């Protein structure tokens, strides 16, 4: 019964997001569909050093950021995938801890959204294995339940953000994109 209560709002949110995306795509100016070249520094007026948007593509036109969404609920993974793909972020998914660890070993990632409660291994166990494979990737935890001891362990393993289910998708998107943008500015302030 609790899964029905969780999945029903998530499916409604997904439907609304898809409708909004189609409306947004239908309202784009025609020239935007053809002009995909990224804005160059030389295109900026004198004195403007950094682009203020969440544009997530690098100079080669490939996504600049790559995230992994780890959750055993497919509807949540789909919702978050849609959300971040709208920001032109490369999105990878894992339905359990084992798949997440394998993805981290094989794929360069900038950010991981990690569910705390999963069937094969919990988020903390998964996070420990992720940290053995990648010590620098940013991680945020998603949880419906969390005791203070578990959250403190997550903080010790480098988790800076926690999102409680049901979460505000705009808050999640803005938080992740802000973290990625700050990280990108630290890595290469010349872009």
UniProtKB/TrEMBL annotation:
Biological process according to GO: phosphorelay signal transduction system
Coiled coil: none
Domain of life: Bacteria
Gene3D superfamilies in the record: 3.40.50.2300
Keywords from the named record: Phosphoprotein
InterPro entries: Bact_response_regulator (IPR050595), CheY-like_superfamily (IPR011006), Sig_transdc_resp-reg_receiver (IPR001789)
Any Pfam family matching the protein: Response_reg
Modified residues (4-aspartylphosphate): 115
Domain Response regulatory: 66-180
The protein's name: Response regulatory domain-containing protein
